[in-house]
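Mods, move this if it's the wrong board.
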Amino acid sequence: MAHDEVDDESPIFAIAVAAELSGMHPQTLRQYDRLGLVVPARTQGGSRRYSLRHVKQLREVASLSAEGMSLPAISRLIELENTVRALRARVSDLEGRLRDAADTRSRVFAAGSSGSVVTLRAGTRVRRATEVVVWRPPAAD
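Not the wrong board. C-alpha coordinates:
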Protein backbone atom coordinates (compact mmCIF):
# COMPACT_ATOMS: atom_id res chain seq x y z
CA MET A 1 0.00 0.00 0.00
CA ALA A 2 1.35 3.44 -0.91
CA HIS A 3 1.90 6.01 1.82
CA ASP A 4 -0.78 8.32 0.43
CA GLU A 5 -3.51 5.64 0.48
CA VAL A 6 -5.80 5.38 3.49
CA ASP A 7 -6.99 2.02 4.75
CA ASP A 8 -10.74 1.86 5.50
CA GLU A 9 -9.91 0.40 8.92
CA SER A 10 -7.29 3.00 10.01
CA PRO A 11 -8.56 4.99 13.02
CA ILE A 12 -7.58 8.49 11.89
CA PHE A 13 -10.49 10.87 12.50
CA ALA A 14 -11.18 12.67 15.77
CA ILE A 15 -14.83 12.83 16.81
CA ALA A 16 -15.34 16.37 15.46
CA VAL A 17 -14.09 15.38 12.00
CA ALA A 18 -16.08 12.12 11.96
CA ALA A 19 -19.19 14.03 13.02
CA GLU A 20 -18.71 16.52 10.20
CA LEU A 21 -18.03 13.79 7.61
CA SER A 22 -21.13 11.86 8.68
CA GLY A 23 -23.36 14.94 9.00
CA MET A 24 -24.08 14.32 12.69
CA HIS A 25 -23.52 16.11 15.95
CA PRO A 26 -20.54 14.83 18.03
CA GLN A 27 -22.92 14.06 20.89
CA THR A 28 -24.83 11.68 18.59
CA LEU A 29 -21.56 9.84 17.88
CA ARG A 30 -20.89 9.56 21.60
CA GLN A 31 -24.40 8.15 22.12
CA TYR A 32 -23.93 5.61 19.31
CA ASP A 33 -20.63 4.59 20.91
CA ARG A 34 -22.34 4.08 24.29
CA LEU A 35 -25.09 2.02 22.63
CA GLY A 36 -22.52 -0.07 20.76
CA LEU A 37 -23.81 0.97 17.33
CA VAL A 38 -20.55 2.41 16.02
CA VAL A 39 -17.64 1.82 18.38
CA PRO A 40 -14.47 3.67 17.40
CA ALA A 41 -10.92 2.84 18.40
CA ARG A 42 -9.43 4.71 21.33
CA THR A 43 -6.08 6.45 21.73
CA GLN A 44 -3.94 5.79 24.80
CA GLY A 45 -5.50 8.92 26.30
CA GLY A 46 -9.02 7.59 25.68
CA SER A 47 -9.97 9.85 22.75
CA ARG A 48 -12.18 8.32 20.10
CA ARG A 49 -10.66 7.72 16.65
CA TYR A 50 -12.93 6.88 13.73
CA SER A 51 -11.98 5.12 10.49
CA LEU A 52 -13.51 5.56 7.05
CA ARG A 53 -15.52 2.39 7.71
CA HIS A 54 -16.91 3.97 10.89
CA VAL A 55 -17.92 7.10 8.96
CA LYS A 56 -19.70 4.89 6.39
CA GLN A 57 -21.46 3.07 9.25
CA LEU A 58 -22.54 6.38 10.79
CA ARG A 59 -24.05 7.47 7.47
CA GLU A 60 -25.80 4.11 7.18
CA VAL A 61 -27.18 4.43 10.73
CA ALA A 62 -28.50 7.91 9.92
CA SER A 63 -30.11 6.66 6.71
CA LEU A 64 -31.72 3.62 8.35
CA SER A 65 -32.90 5.68 11.30
CA ALA A 66 -34.46 8.24 8.94
CA GLU A 67 -36.30 5.37 7.23
CA GLY A 68 -37.82 4.39 10.58
CA MET A 69 -35.60 1.50 11.66
CA SER A 70 -35.12 1.29 15.43
CA LEU A 71 -31.69 1.64 17.00
CA PRO A 72 -31.73 -1.97 18.36
CA ALA A 73 -32.52 -3.24 14.85
CA ILE A 74 -29.72 -1.11 13.39
CA SER A 75 -27.37 -2.44 16.07
CA ARG A 76 -28.22 -6.03 15.12
CA LEU A 77 -27.72 -5.25 11.43
CA ILE A 78 -24.27 -3.76 12.09
CA GLU A 79 -23.37 -6.74 14.27
CA LEU A 80 -24.31 -9.10 11.44
CA GLU A 81 -22.34 -7.03 8.91
CA ASN A 82 -19.28 -7.18 11.18
CA THR A 83 -19.68 -10.95 11.49
CA VAL A 84 -19.91 -11.30 7.70
CA ARG A 85 -16.79 -9.14 7.28
CA ALA A 86 -14.86 -11.29 9.78
CA LEU A 87 -16.05 -14.51 8.14
CA ARG A 88 -15.05 -13.28 4.69
CA ALA A 89 -11.58 -12.46 6.00
CA ARG A 90 -11.36 -15.93 7.56
CA VAL A 91 -12.51 -17.62 4.34
CA SER A 92 -9.93 -15.64 2.37
CA ASP A 93 -7.21 -16.72 4.82
CA LEU A 94 -8.29 -20.37 4.64
CA GLU A 95 -8.42 -20.27 0.83
CA GLY A 96 -4.86 -18.95 0.80
CA ARG A 97 -3.73 -21.72 3.13
CA LEU A 98 -5.51 -24.28 0.98
CA ARG A 99 -3.76 -22.98 -2.16
CA ASP A 100 -0.41 -23.14 -0.37
CA ALA A 101 -1.10 -26.69 0.80
CA ALA A 102 -2.19 -27.75 -2.68
CA ASP A 103 0.99 -26.27 -4.15
CA THR A 104 3.04 -28.21 -1.63
CA ARG A 105 1.18 -31.46 -2.31
CA SER A 106 1.43 -31.13 -6.08
CA ARG A 107 5.20 -31.49 -6.09
CA VAL A 108 7.13 -34.56 -7.09
CA PHE A 109 10.52 -35.27 -5.60
CA ALA A 110 13.35 -36.85 -7.54
CA ALA A 111 17.02 -37.59 -6.97
CA GLY A 112 19.31 -35.42 -9.04
CA SER A 113 22.45 -36.68 -10.75
CA SER A 114 24.56 -35.44 -7.79
CA GLY A 115 22.31 -37.22 -5.29
CA SER A 116 20.49 -34.04 -4.25
CA VAL A 117 16.72 -33.91 -3.90
CA VAL A 118 15.03 -32.15 -6.84
CA THR A 119 11.48 -30.81 -6.59
CA LEU A 120 9.37 -31.08 -9.73
CA ARG A 121 5.91 -29.71 -10.40
CA ALA A 122 3.21 -32.26 -11.04
CA GLY A 123 3.04 -33.02 -14.73
CA THR A 124 6.72 -32.24 -15.29
CA ARG A 125 8.53 -35.00 -17.11
CA VAL A 126 11.60 -36.41 -15.45
CA ARG A 127 14.74 -36.50 -17.55
CA ARG A 128 15.38 -40.19 -17.23
CA ALA A 129 19.08 -39.97 -17.91
CA THR A 130 19.77 -37.81 -14.85
CA GLU A 131 16.86 -38.04 -12.38
CA VAL A 132 14.77 -40.79 -10.81
CA VAL A 133 11.43 -40.25 -9.04
CA VAL A 134 11.74 -41.52 -5.48
CA TRP A 135 8.55 -40.25 -3.84
CA ARG A 136 5.23 -38.88 -4.99
CA PRO A 137 2.59 -37.78 -2.44
CA PRO A 138 -0.72 -39.63 -2.63
CA ALA A 139 -3.47 -37.98 -4.67
CA ALA A 140 -5.91 -35.84 -2.66
CA ASP A 141 -9.46 -37.18 -2.44
